[in-house]
Amino acid sequence: MQKLVLLLSSMAFCFSVNAQTDTTTQDLGEVLIHENRIQIPFSKQSKNISLVSKLQLETTPARSLAEVLSYVPGVDIRQRGVTGVQSDVSIRGGSFEQTLMLLNGIKLSDPQTGHHMMNIPVPLVNIDRVEVLKGPASRVFGQNAYAGAINVITELSDKKYARVQGYAGDFGMKGINFAGSLPVGNYRQNLAISYDDSNGHWYNSDYQVSNIFYEGGYNLNEKNELKGMIAYTDRSFGANGFYSSAFPDQWESVQTTLSSLSHTFTLDNFYLNTRGYFRRNKDQYVLKRNEPSFYQNFHTTDVYALEANGNFETKLGTTGFGVETRKEAIESTNLGNRDRVLTGIFLEQLVNFGSKVDLRAGVYSNYYSEYGWKHFPGAELGVQATTDLRLYSGYAISYRIPTYNDLYYVGPTNIGNDQLQPEQAQNFEIGAKWSKSGIFAELVYFYRSTDNLIEWTRPDEDTPWQPQNFSEVKFNGIEASLNYRVSPNGSTVRVKEFNLSYNYINADLINQPGIETRYALTALKNQVIGGVLVGIGQKFELNTKMRYVERMNQDPYFLLDMRADYNRTGRIGFFAEASNITDTDYMEAGTVQMPGRWFRAGFMLNFE
Fold first, then answer.
1. Distances in Å between the alpha carbon of 316 and those of 174, 204, 313, 359?
2. Cβ atoms of 556 and 585 closer than 8 Å
3. Beta bridge pairs of residue 524
4. Which is deepest, 112, 193, 474, 494, by most CB within 10 Å?
5. Distance between CA 284 and CA 295 in Å, rounded?
6. How far apart are CA 67 and CA 117, in angstroms?
7. DSSP letter string, 251-313
């Protein structure tokens, strides 16, 4: 804790001394948040949303999206190994099953298990920004957005460019990434390819990860645009301790394919986007790597979806509407051959009362073939108290159905429960945002009351884990953050960005005598995140990041990471990164011991 206090003090001193010299601010307030129907600028949102900018993606000491997200306030990333080869994500104390990942608004949820949620088939070099919505988002994105949603955004460019990045580091780690844009007339297109591998940081933790992503868009005329996307990721890895400490020779291989085609029609006061997409995930899991016949599973999940989302403006405000239909199917040696169908309807209204008060309310109704109709209303009220201060509050109901692993899995250490019921929660939050001259501060209180919480339990260590429904569990917490962003102004030494946040979460779930829970009582309790990006001269940048993490019923730990960049935006650039500089002994997920101090370095080539 002493290290934490010293680092925060030094960062605050650096901020107070150098902030005075930066007068040109970088305003992200007008960035449109990519929701599927009503898109509102960041500054007018009545929700707690964190934006991960292109600058942060490029300068954070990270080789994967999972590592980048570990520095977002209120987000809990639990990696099983380095560079996020397999990782879980949760928000506001929710489980890894209760957060929805999206790619340009396309849902990446997998009916087999939420462990596949972070298999994002996009190289980090091609991501433009990430929008992290903390809190219920079922009304906006559907049933899996239970405790929050993370939308990864890529953008088609009108300019030609090519970027190449390569790196190498400890544990035999190496990687190469390429991203390029080649517009031809009215047709814009991006291609990104990456490959990463490592011998692993401990026994049986080697990995190989490949990604390929292609996106194209054609403007038919001023009113109509077509877009298409196809992406593929292949990751194979030694899984020592990933799902059970009893079998150190576990191994897994996962391939995910995603494709989509969409059409957008735009008039002055009307917008309609229609989209179809397909996602396939193939998963091979081996309990003893060199003896597959001992125990192995093969799973293939297919998701077929059609969506139509739009909005129109009248004197009453902006009306958003949408409909979706989705089929989820699985062929599995363990879970059987199964399928289910979802149909959903979205409707919401945004009304402005004068220039200072706005109300956004709506409902999402869906029908699942197993559970019938369910309805999820929600509303947010925003008050622009002053030019710089915005107050807001919101209420919403969120919902999640069990995955096929929850229901039907049978293995040596885990057994499903086909009697599970969907979990549902009532959510409330109230917050305040203050923004002025590049400084953005936010304070939020949230409360979530969950019915039928799905949690894996067991009576003793000799009995397999099995999920059960808990009748009612309450989560509440406080989120506070301070961010400072500026543009370069010519000073020799200057602060480009400063971040500091604190999150506290409390849960009232108490272990029953003789019953051990697996996930709910290991949620974040205290989290402090800090960072400062310093520019030195015109070409050198130094980014320092720290995290203090305490999960419920676990020992806290402190991590310090750094990255140095030279000529990052020039034709040829170089970088070096150091992770866990404090050489902390810690675990994030399962029984996987995370590495101590480790390093990597690389180069960037930029052509335009």
1. 56, 61, 8, 11
2. no
3. 551
4. 112
5. 11
6. 15
7. EEEEEEEEEEEEEEEE-SSEEEEEEEEEEEEEEEEESSTT-GGGSEEEEEEEEEEEEEEEEEE
The answer to whether 135 and 446 have CB atoms below 8 angstroms apart is yes
Residue pair 600/63 in contact (Cβ under 8 Å)? The answer is: yes
Average pLDDT of the residues in 57-68: 95
The residues that bridge with 516 in the sheet, in sequence order, are 458
183 CB-near residues (< 8 Å, 6+ apart): 157, 158, 159, 160, 189
Strand residue runs (E) in 69-113: 75-79, 87-91, 99-103, 106-107
Question: What's the residue count for the chain?
Answer: 608
Query: Which H or E element spans position 139?
Result: helix 138-141
CA distances from 407 to 33, 40, 327, 455, 557 (A): 35, 38, 18, 12, 34
Residue 18 has pLDDT above 70, yes or no: no
What would the pLDDT profile of 259-273 be if each residue is shown by its tens digit?
999 999 999 899 999
Per the CB < 8 A criterion, the answer to whether 451 and 423 are in contact is yes
Pair of tokens at residue 554: 């676990």
Look up the pTM and report it. 0.92
Bridge partners of residue 593, in order along the sequence: 587
pLDDT of residue 55: 93
Residue owning tokens 């290991």 = 522
- pLDDT for the residue numbered 9: 38
How do residues 345-385 score in pLDDT, each as one tens digit? 999 999 999 999 999 999 999 998 888 999 999 999 999 99
